[in-house]
Amino acid sequence: MKIDGRYFEANASTSCAVTLEGSSKDKLRVEVRGDFFDVEYISVSDRLAGVPRKIRFSDGSIFETDFDNAVDQLLEMEKGFGSSMSRLEASWKVVAVLAVTCIGLVYGIFTYGLPAAAAGAAAVTPSIALTAIDNGALGSLDATIFEKSKLPQIDKDRLQKMFVEIIAASGQISPKPKLLFRDSPVIGPNAFALPGGTVIFTDQIIELAENDDELAGVVAHEIGHVTYKHGLKQIYRVLGVGFMIGVIGGDSSQLIDEVVTQAALIQNFSYTRGFEEEADKNSVVLMEKLNRDPFAFINLLDRIIPPQKDKGSDTSWYSTHPGNKDRRKNIQLILKELGK
Question: What is this structure's pTM?
């Protein structure tokens, strides 16, 4: 077999046109201007589209050619891994399939793998880390959007008593929730639970409520977020695997600081639709157990976001929260499941 190419003598930058001849890689010779001399094969460069192949010889010289197939045949590489990969790379169908496979793999990791990892990490996160997250988050909120509550003490005591009753109906919860009150003209009527079990009600949502059943339903909803560790799972999903490992492993000081600096994450705690629906179900179950109106908190939500302004009133596929209209339907289904 003969292969035309360029020949570089050892340590030379210039080349000359030559022909490489041989029957195998162990029997090679180079023809230069009619003269022949034997060469001893050492190695060959990988096959890459558009890149010349380089065969190195024992004396430091190099033979370079553009004829990939001939090189593979001469060096008996047709069945080798490099040749097979090259043929795959040359097929746009194979490349397309691999691209789709990679996209599917990434989608699967983010859709199923990361949530599963977050759930597992949340289940084994030490309580000291949860306390640190809550303290750091609360400190950040107090410094930015919260003010000291102006509610009368009699109202606080009444709501604390209601909170204790709901916790008792919930059974054993870890971490144990606690209720705090804050005034916040910035965010207005709102309530949310921090990952460590701290439930915060703004003065504005309490003032907007027409009865305690409305507030009890919100409490039971937020208790659901604590029970199922939604806040912690959401943090792990956002900050990733490295954060999970650090917190679980106990090296959490810098990682806790990272959570505190995530102002948008801390202040919004936007849960996935699945988390919201799970918390809604928790609310319905507890309200039924306490003989309270399970639809009451939806009435409160309707005043916070009137139906005509609630773009998620009918839940769309991209919504992160169920719309209030769909929430009512879901409550009816849950009650039906409970035999009510």
Answer: 0.65
276-293 b/e with 16+ CB inside 10 Å = b?
bbbbbbbbbbbbbebebe
**Where exactly are the structural domains of the chain?**
2-80, 126-337
Question: pLDDT tens-digit profile of 143-169?
Answer: 999 999 999 999 999 999 999 999 999
Assign a CATH topology to domain 2-80.
PH-domain like (2.30.29)
**What's the rounded Cα separation, in Å, for the pair 66 and 55?**
11
Phi, psi of 182 (to 5 degrees): -145, 145
Compute and round to an integer the Cα radius of gyration of the chain: 34
116 CA to centre of own chain: 10
Q: Is 336 exposed, middle or buried (0-12, 13-18, 19+ CB in 10 A)?
A: exposed
> Do residues 256 and 232 lie in contact, with contact meaning Cβ atoms separated by under 8 Å?
no
Closest CA to 133 of 279, 239, 276: 239
- H helical segments located in 52-181: 68-74, 81-90, 92-108, 114-124, 127-144, 153-170
Note whether 57 and 41 are within 8 A (CB): yes
Element (H, E) at 204: helix 203-208
> Tens digit of pLDDT for each residue in 254-286?
555 555 454 334 444 456 788 899 999 999 999
For strand 198-202 and strand 191-193, is the pairing parallel, antiparallel, or unpaired? antiparallel
